[in-house]
């Protein structure tokens, strides 16, 4: 078996689309033996995950796929994911904690329910699945594994975007404010969680790292980036002159999951096309 993840069992939350989907495909491409793919469980994500399962098993005959539905904000979902994964494959070698939401809202008028749901999915859900998988990694033989939390460039910078007046006005006119002051703290929390888990879990041969994507074109921001002025602005801010694609994150995730990164833990890996370093 060739690739960076030969015979590994990889668990990915929020795997039906976007970054999670790309990580699933690349994990199979890199030799993963088993994939535990979590999805929300509604009609749309169920169709997506079944299509993904069929694609992986067709393209990579050596890979087997187990799919697990559920709301990641419910701690019972994480228990179910681990139980299903162990029943199917006997162990879990890699966790990609990816499930997340970003319902854009302006800070001063944001309903508390929006804050609570965003925190519950992004941060609480990450804690639940990391804790559940870490306990499995501790108990299995051989002991250990790699945990990757999908954080964001938003862990490092604020999320109340400032635009030139005509652009800002156009956003308001279209009633699509690109505000994420509730999202950014959850992504900072995921980065902090990975740093603390690196310390808490290192003695069990479990590594914990974070990837921090920049602006990646996915369903989570599809409507927001449909504004041509904003999209062009974000493209212009990146050193590489383009928005990211989910596949751009999958490669760094596989690296952190692999033995190439066997001495990497507690690290934030910024994958943003040069957005963060561009002051102007």
Automatic annotation (TrEMBL):
<protein>
    <submittedName>
        <fullName>NAD(P)-binding protein</fullName>
    </submittedName>
</protein>
<keyword id="KW-0560">Oxidoreductase</keyword>
<comment type="similarity">
    <text>Belongs to the short-chain dehydrogenases/reductases (SDR) family.</text>
</comment>
<dbReference type="InterPro" id="IPR002347">
    <property type="entry name" value="SDR_fam"/>
</dbReference>
<keyword id="KW-0521">NADP</keyword>
<dbReference type="GO" id="GO:0048038">
    <property type="term" value="F:quinone binding"/>
</dbReference>
<dbReference type="GO" id="GO:0019301">
    <property type="term" value="P:rhamnose catabolic process"/>
</dbReference>
<keyword id="KW-0684">Rhamnose metabolism</keyword>
<dbReference type="GO" id="GO:0016616">
    <property type="term" value="F:oxidoreductase activity, acting on the CH-OH group of donors, NAD or NADP as acceptor"/>
</dbReference>
<dbReference type="GO" id="GO:0006633">
    <property type="term" value="P:fatty acid biosynthetic process"/>
</dbReference>
<dbReference type="Pfam" id="PF13561">
    <property type="entry name" value="adh_short_C2"/>
</dbReference>
<dbReference type="InterPro" id="IPR036291">
    <property type="entry name" value="NAD(P)-bd_dom_sf"/>
</dbReference>
